[in-house]
Design a protein that fits this description.
Blueprint: H1 4-36, H2 40-47, H3 50-59, H4 61-69, H5 76-101, E1 105-120, E2 123-133, E3 139-149, E4 152-157, E5 162-164, H6 167-177, E6 181-183, E7 198-202, E8 209-217, H7 219-222, H8 227-230, E9 250-252, E10 255-258, E11 262-263, H9 271-288, E12 295-302, H10 308-316, E13 323-330, E14 336-343, H11 348-361, H12 367-377, H13 405-428, H14 435-440
Parallel strand pairs: 11-12, 12-13
Antiparallel strand pairs: 1-4, 1-7, 1-8, 2-3, 4-5, 6-7, 9-10, 13-14
Helix pairs in contact: 1-5, 2-5, 3-13, 5-13, 9-12, 11-12
Length: 448
């Protein structure tokens, strides 16, 4: 029969192995959750929030007090383990609540053009899959498995962005381009034959505008207390029929890459001239959208006052980072009354010159596109050129972001109680690992 010392060693070894999986989950779960939910930016904002560190200092005061009051039962190892768990879980909870309660992420409309259309054939892969059984004493072996990789049809844009499309749209592109090329691919583990190849067609001289949405951090939108948002707190009930939502991507013959360039809520413009101007603005966005980081939108209304841009900004909750929103008001004879440009740019002269040129044109026609093109083509280094303001300029606002006070109080109470209970647990569990052994080995029967 094993001696008492040998039994202790075996018991501790098995107990550590049994607990190690649980300990790893405790240690790695917060990081895995943040990564899986794409909350990295909210994690950074949480770390910059002074309320988090105020809660940390106040609620962790009790464990520090107990450590120096009862340093024998509450060991340094337990204290450091407690400190790590408390810190990372506090930050994780703040991160999740920030993600759910703040509008920190916004979406830009990125404009470019179609470069290629591709078709990847279906193919079958064979691989070795690890299969394990049991919980404490796990036994593992490998089995042969297969998986089918389905066919894919997609666009590759000029900036390398890939967008999935339907088979019918792919066939439309290939019939238009007439230059499909077959590429024989060799996939690792492929067991199917005669498939898994790629067919590629190039746009070449065809200019097909394409747009997609891209998320970015918007400190201005997220921080409701900034001066920049105070202008949007008024209500404009008289403009309700003239306010429409921000343009979204729409499905068309070329795929889900289309978007409205002209917004005309009351259909003031003639359909034919509107279509020509919209196509011209579409090409303009395709040519300069990526290089100039710009998204040109023309908003046409009739008989509105000069406070309409503020009403629209409130309705849209502010413009996007790369928007150049040109608002044109017409009179009853469809002559331009005034023009207002909203854009995040370092050069106010760009907006003033653009507005003056459009008003001077007198009416909304195809010439408007030429005016915008001329102004956009100006060098960003010149005072009248478009230079997008980077959101990093407003990064100081992340220190002003806050959650509702009731959430902060709830987190404070939860971690105060958790710290007290965890500290008491660590103080009382020092010899709990040997409890079962002591029952099996009375003192008089122990042999080392």
């Amino acid at each position: 029969m094993n001696s008492y010392l040998e039994k202790v060693k075996i018991y501790l070894y098995e107990r550590i192995n049994a607990y190690w999986a649980f300990i790893k989950i405790l240690l790695l779960f917060p990081f895995t959750l943040i990564w899986f939910m794409n909350l990295e930016i909210f994690f950074q904002v949480a770390l910059a929030n002074p309320v988090l560190w105020a809660i940390f200092i106040i609620t962790f005061g009790y464990p520090i007090y107990r450590k120096f009051k009862n340093h024998v039962e509450y060991t340094w190892g337990e204290f450091l383990f407690h400190f790590y768990l408390f810190t990372i879980y506090l930050v994780t909870i703040f991160t999740i609540f920030f993600a759910k309660t703040t509008d920190l992420l916004n979406e830009n409309t990125i404009n470019t053009k179609v470069a290629q259309v591709l078709y990847d054939e279906q193919w079958t892969e064979q691989y070795q899959k690890k299969v394990c059984k049991g919980s404490r004493r796990r036994s593992c072996h490998y089995e042969t498995a297969t998986t089918i990789h389905p066919a894919q049809y997609y666009l590759r844009l000029a900036d390398s962005k890939e967008i999935d499309i339907e088979r019918d749209i792919y066939l439309y592109y290939t019939a238009l381009f007439e230059n499909s090329v077959k590429e024989e691919l060799h996939h690792s583990g492929q067991i199917s034959t005669g498939d898994g190849n790629r067919y590629r067609s190039y746009a070449n001289d065809y200019l097909i505008p394409a747009s997609y949405k891209s998320k970015y951090v918007d400190y201005i939108k997220a921080n409701g207390g900034t001066i920049l948002k105070e202008s949007f707190t008024k209500s404009y009930p008289n403009y309700q029929s003239k306010l429409v939502n921000y343009p979204q991507l729409r499905e068309e013959g070329f795929g889900p890459i289309g978007i409205d360039r002209i917004i005309d809520p009351l259909n003031v413009l003639e359909p034919d001239s509107k279509k020509e101007l919209e196509e011209s603005l579409d090409r303009l966005n395709a040519l300069y959208g990526k290089s100039k980081e710009v998204n040109i939108i023309l908003y046409v209304v009739q008989e509105v006052k000069k406070d309409f841009p503020y009403a629209l900004s409130m309705h849209w909750k502010g413009i996007k980072q790369n928007d150049v929103l040109i608002i044109v008001s017409l009179d009853q004879s469809k002559k331009i009354q005034w023009c207002k440009t909203l854009a995040f740019t370092e050069h106010e002269l760009f907006k003033r010159e653009l507005e003056n040129a459009i008003v001077h044109n007198g009416e909304v026609n195809l010439t408007i596109a030429d005016i915008i093109k001329k102004q956009i083509q100006n060098s960003p280094s010149s005072k009248n050129g478009f230079l997008k303001t980077q959101m990093e300029k407003y990064s100081y606002l992340k220190y002003q972001l806050s959650m509702p006070w009731e959430i902060n109080i709830g987190i404070f109470i939860f971690f105060m109680i958790s710290n007290i209970l965890a500290t008491r647990f660590f103080e009382k569990n020092k010899f709990s690992l040997l409890k079962d052994i002591d029952e099996d080995f009375p003192i008089e029967n122990r042999t080392l």
